Structure formats: structure tokens, C-alpha cells
Amino acid sequence: MPTLLELLKDGRFHSGQALGEALGVSRSAIWKQLQLLEAELGLVIHKVRGRGYQLASPIMLLSAKEILGYSSDLGWDIRIHDSIDSTNAEALRFIERGGSAPALVVAERQTAGRGRRGRKWVSPFAENIYYSLVLRVEGGMRQLEGLSLVVGLAAMHTLRECGVPGAGLKWPNDVLVGQKKIAGILLELVGDPADVCHVVLGVGINVNMQRSEEVGQEWTSVRLQSGKVVDRNRLIARLNEVLAMYLARHRSEGFSVIQDEWEKNHLWQGCAVSLIAGVSKVDGVVLGIDRQGALRLSVDGAERVYSGGELSLRLRADS
After folding, report:
1. Counting beta carbons within 10 angstroms of the beta carbon of residue 41, is it exposed (0 to 12), middle (13 to 18) or buried (19 or more)?
2. Domains along the chain?
């Protein structure tokens, strides 16, 4: 199937005979593979008698060779999947199998993509970036402080470079354009955080997606913002470089040196918000973050600090 996709990705018509000859199979075998592509990957393929088969629109597939060609070699093992349950889940399995870090797992499509708080991450084939970086972390909790915020900062700068100058941060793990989500971060930990552990840095970026009936909140994409089709290999390569730079800085100097930069790019700084944890809600005004990346709120005139993976921040109507 990947070979057939390579032949069809240009969006032009290809006859069944030509495809069969290129792959060394019969026309009926091509027909069966085309049906699988439609059923399993959700692709739309036009079939026109006398002309052959054509993808509804051209696609650019992910390629480790192209990703490496666009950036310096960071020594990361790059693993690309056509379709997978989720890149974070595969990254966790990679750790269980004793895989060597750092390693990057990316996919064309996720069948069970996950966001924070167990939410579904919509993951159409060959349109967006589904990205999970496996790191081995030594040196205790200091190496984990504010880490998800650091990843968000790297994603934000990458998006700005790629034609989305309005990208900004929302605590704790979102990148927004205005009130519309364009990227999300999901970190998962394996091992003893006080000693040696592995962490999976999951990043989902809406790149070329133009429509979706499944997303349950306001969203946008790089293509919608820039008006251009984006080369995902180039974007991944740049994200790798920016993320590697921020991770090195975080590792050597700690989160406190990045804290001010993060706050300056927080879209909701000084805003009236509601902090939601399950059925509980706290109203306050965003003061910023502390040296560990926890949220600082002014609540009834007093400063309070909040952290945790199950917290959700919402703008208040009076903001």
C-alpha cells in the first residue's frame, strides 16, 4: 500500500494497467488496494473510465530522509507509521521494548489520537503532524519542571516561522491563534521521576486540515492561517531543531530562565479566567506562572498557585 500511495500522491490520473505494471501485480489487485486505501485511510479516490484513478487532492507523505535533509542531524531515531492508534501509545510501547532514546515517532494518521484529559485528537491521514519524542531523563524532578510549557514554546516559535505570526500560548499545554486551537501538547512519564525515567513529549499540530466535523472546539490550521499548503517534513525538521535548542537550555539552566519568555507569550496573561478541575471551579485573574510552571492566579485578592494534568483553563465572559 505505501508504494501505491507513492504512485498516486501527485493527484494525477494513473491507469490501472500502469499502476499494476509499476507494482508487478494485476489490475484486480490494484482495485483491492485502492478499496483498502479508501476504507482504512479515509482517502477519496476518483475512478474515471478511460482515465484511471486519481486522489481527490495531492498529498505529501512523511519521509525520514526528507526530514533529515531539511535539518542538522540530531541523532534521533525517526520512526514513521502510515496508520497507528496514537504516536504517544507507540512511544510508550517503544520504551517498554527497551528502545534507545532519543527517538521520534510520527504518523500519517492516528486511529485513537489522544489529547489531555482523555479527549480525542482528530487525526486525518497525511494532513497534520502527530509527533511523539521519547527522552531519557536523569537528574531528578528539576529536569521535568515546566517541561510541557517548554515544548509549547518551541511549537509556538516553529509555527510563527511557518506562517502563523499570531500563534501564542495558553496554559498549560495549548497553542492558539486568537481563541482557536492550532496545536496541543501531551506529556507522559514512565519510571521514577526522582531518579531515572523516560518522558514522551507528544505534539499535535493542525497543518493542512481545512475542515472537520469531529473537532469539538474552535480550531484552525497552518494552511487556514497562511493560505498555503505546508510541507510537513520541513515543519517537523524545524520543530526538531527548535525543540532540541529549548530542551538543551532547559536541561542546563532549568525552567526559571525560560519562565519570563513563556509569560510574555501567554495570550491570557492578566485575563479573568475560570480554572476547572472536574466539577470544581475557581475564578481568578492570571498573574503568570511560577518557577516550576504552575499557574499563578489572583483569587479574591490573594495569590494562589495551581498545577496538575487534569486542570483546564477557560476565559470568563467578563475578561
Report:
1. middle
2. 2-55 (1.10.10.10), 64-264 (3.30.930.10), 272-315 (2.30.30.100)
